[in-house]
Specification:
single chain, 100 residues, mainly alpha, 5 helices
Amino acid sequence: MTDNEKIYIYYITKTELYDRTLTTMRSPYDNTEAFITDKFSRRLSNKYAIILSQKLHIGRIKKTIHPSLLHMSAQWFIDVFNNLCENNELDFIEKYLENM
């Protein structure tokens, strides 16, 4: 797995976990994905996603990752994220964000 793929997994996981703090509803298409319906929570979710996306340069990174990553379930990202964290494979991202 490339560093860019790890960064993308980090981004998707962090935004999904944040969204889960905003609602208990789940998507009808993916029962592991948060489903936000109210405007206030949607704004909070979008703001968080935009800020993190800009910090991690997700627009650029998304062009370099394997296309299959774009279609995984929310829970898959979280499970992979947890596995990567256990192996200290995401430490470089945390250090990068701390030094911004």
